[in-house]
DNA sequence: TTAAAATATGCAGATGCCCTAATATATGAG
DNA sequence: CTCATATATTAGGGCATCTGCATATTTTAA
């Protein structure tokens, strides 16, 4: 069964979203943002990551529509913008489910 | 908040699983295997992929414990071996949910 | 044991991602 | 305007992944 162009495009999009999430630092950021929007400083401080590196990851995720942002004065708040990303994180980061299935 | 070693290991494992799934051809294979175990030939025939390439992807997924296999005579049947992988596929490949959120 | 079918492996060029360091830009206070 | 804080961008070396191609291995039948 050869996939149609639309199906291929859809697969590539799904894979692209998963590639964004498939990264330890980005997973940590996403987990943190489950608690609500946060500024860049709050994020890299909480996770003990370099500022520039954190900003890169945030912008990457935003460019892939996984995050959205909102400026308030000198600060920028990031938040999760994709409902499916939340579901994926729950599949992978739920304590009970993961310890048995993934670990 | 610096993560503990155990937390880091867990994140890396979750990310590793996601990396395996984050690939168009592997997603197609996994979707196909949702319908039950299949032989290599059934898979590469159904998906119109090169045999060697398909075998590589299958072995990769098996090495990461995403798939399991069972030999029956000259044929090898592959099946999904990780419940969370199924959940992830559903997050990403469910028709209605995806068109609106990921596409 | 020879042949055919089914599956697996090795290799290699190309591409892309990871992460660090340095630097640039934007915003608001004074 | 100048400074300090907050955020973003650029550059680059190193490493892993992608994927086509050739070939090897395994299994069964004859």
TrEMBL record, chains A, B:
It comes from Desulfacinum infernum DSM 9756. GO terms for molecular function: DNA binding; DNA-binding transcription factor activity. The keyword Thylakoid does not apply. Pfam families: HTH_5. Keywords: DNA-binding, Transcription, Transcription regulation. This is ArsR family transcriptional regulator. CDD domains: HTH_ARSR. InterPro entries: ArsR-like_HTH (IPR011991), HTH_ArsR_DNA-bd_dom (IPR001845), Metal_resp_trans_reg (IPR051011), WH-like_DNA-bd_sf (IPR036388), WH_DNA-bd_sf (IPR036390). PANTHER family: ARSENICAL RESISTANCE OPERON REPRESSOR ARSR-RELATED. Residues 6-100 form the HTH arsR-type domain. It comes from the Bacteria. The keyword rRNA-binding does not apply.
